[in-house]
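Mods, move this if it's the wrong board.
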Amino acid sequence: MEIVYSLIAASAAMLGSIILITFHKWSEKNSLLIINFAAGVMLTLAFSHLIPEGLELNSKTMIYTLLGFSIMFFLQFVVLFHPCHDHECSNSKHTHVASITGILLHSILDGLMIAIGFKTNSNLGLLTTLAILLHKLPDGITISGILLYRGMSKNKIFNISLLTACFTPVGTMLGMFLLKNISMPSLGALLGITAGSFIFLSASDLIPETHKCKNRATALMLFVGIIFILAAEHFM
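Not the wrong board. Structure tokens:
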């Protein structure tokens, strides 16, 4: 079941690329709606589910949350884990390779997070999948836009999206294997690391995009995402 949901989440990045390629102007206008909604979902999931669930299994979960945040910071700003999100980035072949490598690593970690969620319980697995799906859709739009801006052909962009999408279920399968005989305290630690990753992605990647939007109503989607997850608690 985890693989099925992982494939669904992976397809969101491809959908983002297809939307960008097909409806370039529309996606530039409306991707911020999805970005803000995704930020609200990821933050709420981290604080209302991942951290509390982790604390039940491991009293040091908050330390691991900080570790997860720090790891993401290190990967993004030190080893170019995340592709550059600025059109002024250099157009060198090295930058292309670093960007694509970053996307591949990101996809594997997304798959691992889905596996960790389902290892805890099915409800958390579903919510984790939703958060990653919502994050990958605007990611697909943004990354494809950068590659298009750098002069890459639409066919190449589509092929890269397809390749990177395949690495999400690979990450989930890897997680299922590694988590097979995991202890409860170790699972709690992983939930904390996942929470820290979600907080970093929301605070560093998603929320700053809001400042580019002139329509303040778009920023309200952050609160819609928060309310959505809180409301989902009553139906799951």
